[in-house]
Amino acid sequence: MPKNTTEHKLEAVSAATASASTSTSATNKTKRKNVPRDDEDDSGSDSGSDVSMINVDFDFYNFNPDVDQIAIKRLVRQTLSHDDELIDVHPLADLILAEGIRLGAGSSIKTDGEDSDPWGLVAVIDIKQNRDHPAFAPFLNYLLSTLPSISPLRLLLDPSSSPAHASKPALIFSLRMLNLPLPLIPHLYRMLLSELKDGGADFTDYIIWGRGYRLEGEEESMGLDIIDTNSKKKKKGGVNSQLALTAGTFPYHPEEEFIDKVATHVHTYPFKTAPKRDEDAFGVEQFGRLVLVSDDKLAKAVEAMQAACQ
């Protein structure tokens, strides 16, 4: 049996989470998720315990080019947001999968066997080795076009601008469905770093590509309420109380907040083709993000992620 089979990955996760919280099973395959339920016959009890539990098995898999390409293209387009037509995602998805196989690193999360679509994945591309690759160069040029003329990210994304630069950077694609349970994410990163180390990859820095959003603090009126399932104060009719959203800018994936804390540099950029917003615009404003973090600091951020999920 090859080393990097599904069973091997699940074994690695299990060994690292022997003391997991009650929301994680002993093998880290089964997660449970709280789903708010409005009970019409609610008598007004303030116990705050009327939630339904759904058990879902999440399995970690190596990349499968025959199955995963369509989902990766969809997730890349999702992250590109308004700019999805600026990049040909088909060859980029092929390269993401090919690099995962070449480096022996990266994992996907699925719920219905290896032949099902992934809910999320973490993958890496060697920037220097693929700088001129026809599938990668347009994407790198797109990212470079969002940077100011002087930026630490420019030196790493365009090695030709500083041939003597000693760093060996890699670009991380952390792509997933928004409702994927957070406790799964640290294992994706932990396995990626472990596999890169075992394979002899000596990346010094990682650039994590993603997106973020901006809130003005008035989104309750736009249907973007947060439901507080733990509140003991309920509205009439058994509906849980609502929390006001805090104004500010945030990454779409909450685990990236742990990485931001140890990052060398965080760059945000507006999407090139996003429609101009006016005072009556509906919904949150999205933007792109690039986060630069050193190899050792990323490992510490992953530890912090995992500790927060226990």
TrEMBL record:
**Protein name (record):** Protein BCP1
UniProt biased composition (Basic and acidic residues): 1-11
A Pfam family assignment: BCCIP
Looking up InterPro entries in the UniProt record yields:
BCP1_family
PANTHER family xref list: BRCA2 AND CDKN1A INTERACTING PROTEIN, BRCA2 AND CDKN1A-INTERACTING PROTEIN
Q: Where does this protein chiefly localize? A: nucleus
Q: Which residues fall in a compositionally biased region of kind Low complexity?
A: 14-27
The segment annotated Disordered runs over 1-48
Q: Where in the cell is it found?
A: Nucleus
